[in-house]
Amino acid sequence: MSNFDIKNESLAEGGRRRIDWAAREMPVLSQIKERFLKEKPLKGLRMSACLHVTAETANLMRTLQAGGADVVLVASNPLSTQDDVAASLVLHEEIPVHAIKGEDNATYYKHIEAALAHKPQITMDDGADLVSTIHKSHRELLPDILGGTEETTTGVIRLRAMAADKMLMFPVIAVNDAMTKHFFDNRYGTGQSTLDGIIRATNILIAGKVFVVVGYGWCGRGLAQKARGMGANVIVTEVDPLKALEAVMDGFTVMPILEASKIGDIFCTMTGDINVIDKNHFEVMKDGAIVANSGHFNCEINIPALEKMSVEKRLVRPFVDQYRLKDGRLIHILGEGRLINLASAEGHPASVMDMSFANQALSAEYMVKNYKTLEKQVYTVPTDIDTAIAALKLKSMGISCDVLTEEQVHYLNSWESGT
C-alpha cells in the first residue's frame, strides 16, 4: 500500500502494542466489532475519518474495517497524532493514514485533501474540518455522501450553524451529544487527561495553585472537579448564568475572567469559542502564568496578540513556549494553544473512548440504514443506541441494574392515577 503519509514505518510494532493495550479497556467496542465481523453493515462503503490518531481511534478503525468499510484516516489536530499508531494502522491493518505529529498547517490541509480524494460516502469528523472543506471547495463530492458523524462540541456548533444557514447538504449525527459520550468522555476523560497534559508539560505541583477553568460545560466541570481533587484553588469563569450558578452551587469560586486573570497561576480554556483569553487578560496576568487550552481549536487563546506584546519567545520545555513581555513578565503557553491533553499527553483513557467510539460505530451504521429518511440537519444519537451502549458498558463491568415492572411501565404512561 502506497497511499499514506506517516512519520516512520519502523514505529509500527510499538504502535501495535499500544493499540492492543488500549483494546483491553474497550470492551463495548470489542462487542460491536464481533457483531460487525458477522453482519458487515458497512460493506463496500467508503469512509473518511478526520479524528485524533491515537490507539483508541485505531480500535475504532479496526471496528469499521471489520464492518466492511473502506476507511481512510487523517488527523483532526496537528499535535494529536501518535506516530507509532499511524504506522501500525498502515503496516498491520492496511488502513491508509495521513497524519504526522507536529505537521504544519499546509500539511494538515494536504491530509484533509487526501481524505477527500477517497470520495467518502460517510464522513467521520472531530471538529468539522472535513465537512466544512467539502462544502467550501469540494461540492462535487456531495451527491455521493450519505451522511456523517461529529465527535466534538466545537464541531457540532459549526455544523448547527451551517444547518441554520441552510448550508449543510447532508445529515450528520452529533455523537458529542450522546449521554454516553459527553457525560463520560467530556467530564471524566477530558478532566483527567487535561490535568495529565498540563502536568507532563510542566511538571508543576497542582496543589495550592490558583487554577482558572474557563467555561463550565461538561469538560469544564470535569477539569474543575479533578483540579480541586489535586488540591488546587479552583476559579470558574462563565458567560452563561445557569452554568455560573451551577459552578457556585458545586462549591467553586466564580468571577469574570478579567478578575481571575489577576490572581490565576494556571488557566485552561474549555469553551469552543474564540479569544476567550485575550490581550487585556495577558496584560494583568501574574509573572509565570501558565495558559493551556482543552477546547479543540487554538483560537480560544489569542496567541497572535500575545506575540505582539512580547519581546522574546523561546521553547523552555517540550510543549512549553515562554513569552517575555515588555515589562519583563513571563507567560507560558502550553502545546501551542492546542489540545493539551493530546499535545503533551495521550488523550482520554481507553475505557472512556470505548463509549465515544461505540457511538461513532453505531451512528455510522444507523446513518447507512436510515439516510434516505433523514433531513439535511444535525441529529442527536438515537436514545436506544445511547442506552444500549450504557447497558453494554455496565455488563462489561459486571454491574446490573433494575428493570421496570409491567405495573410501573403502565403507571408511568398513564394519567388517571392521582393522589
Automatic annotation (TrEMBL):
Entry keyword annotation includes Protein biosynthesis: no
Q: Name one GO cellular component term.
A: cytosol
**Stored InterPro entries:** Adenosylhomocyst_ase-like_sf (IPR042172), Adenosylhomocysteinase-like (IPR000043), Ado_hCys_hydrolase_NAD-bd (IPR015878), NAD(P)-bd_dom_sf (IPR036291), S-Ado-L-homoCys_hydrolase_CS (IPR020082)
Record has Cytoplasm as a keyword: yes
Q: Where does substrate bind?
A: 54, 126, 151, 181, 185
UniProt-listed GO biological process terms: L-homocysteine biosynthetic process; one-carbon metabolic process; S-adenosylmethionine cycle
Q: Which UniProt keywords apply?
A: Cytoplasm, Hydrolase, NAD, One-carbon metabolism
- Which residues does the annotation say bind NAD(+)? 152-154, 186, 215-222, 238, 294-296, 341, 348
Name the Pfam families on file. AdoHcyase, AdoHcyase_NAD
> EC annotation?
3.13.2.1
The S-adenosyl-L-homocysteine hydrolase NAD binding domain, residue ranges = 186-347
Cofactor requirements of the protein: NAD(+)
- Source organism's superkingdom? Bacteria
The entry's free-text remark on the cofactor is: Binds 1 NAD(+) per subunit.
Q: Name one GO molecular function term.
A: adenosylhomocysteinase activity
Pathway noted in the entry: Amino-acid biosynthesis; L-homocysteine biosynthesis; L-homocysteine from S-adenosyl-L-homocysteine: step 1/1
Q: Specify the signal sequence span.
A: none
- Enzyme class, broadest EC rank: hydrolase
Q: Which reaction does it catalyse?
A: S-adenosyl-L-homocysteine + H2O = L-homocysteine + adenosine
Q: Where in the cell is it found?
A: Cytoplasm
- PANTHER family assigned to the protein according to its UniProt record, in alphabetical order: ADENOSYLHOMOCYSTEINASE (PTHR23420:SF0)
Entries under NCBIfam families matching the protein: ahcY, PRK05476.2-3
Xref: HAMAP family: AdoHcyase
Annotated function: May play a key role in the regulation of the intracellular concentration of adenosylhomocysteine.
Q: What is this protein called?
A: Adenosylhomocysteinase
Q: What is the lineage of its organism?
A: Bacteria, Bacillati, Chloroflexota, Anaerolineae, Anaerolineales
Gene of this entry: ahcY
